[in-house]
Amino acid sequence: MSKLSATASARVADCLEQRRCLACLKPARRGRMIRGCHERCYRATLRGASLGKCTLDERVAEGKLLPANSRNRRARNPVTRELLKRGAK
Ligand SMILES: [Zn+2]
User: Fold this and answer.
1) Contacts of 18 (CB under 8 A, 6+ apart)
2) What pTM does this model have?
């Protein structure tokens, strides 16, 4: 977390405290949250990364995605875990 800019870490802290999605800033409702984002926002982020619009590291640096090793929620699916470990290309 220490490598985040002040703006990014404030965003992360606010979102975690207010239970908001880091990506779209809307309240985290009941649905599944992945790395601080709604599942669909997370998927949109992955899609953006696969299209070369961003990298996951960039999103983390912007405070729009939690780092993969976040204690927030551990992925249980082995495929998810493998892909998270892989990071962005
Ligand atoms: Zn969202």
Assistant:
1) 27
2) 0.72
Taking only the tens place, the pLDDT of each residue in 33-83 is 999 999 999 999 999 999 999 999 999 999 999 998 755 555 678 887 788
Residue type, 12: V
H or E element, residue 39: helix 39-50
> Within 13 Å, how many C-alpha atoms sit on residue 89's CB side?
9
Q: How far is the CA of 79 from the centre of ligand 1 (A)?
A: 22
Q: 59 CA distance to ligand 1 centroid (A)?
A: 13
| SS3 assignment for 51-84 | CCCCCHHHHHHCCCCCCCCCCCCCCCCHHHHHHH
Question: Strand, coil or helix: what is 85?
Answer: helix
Instruction: Calculate how far, in angstroms, residue 89's C-alpha sits from the geometric centre of ligand 1.
Output: 23
pLDDT confidence band for 11 (50 / 70 / 90): very high
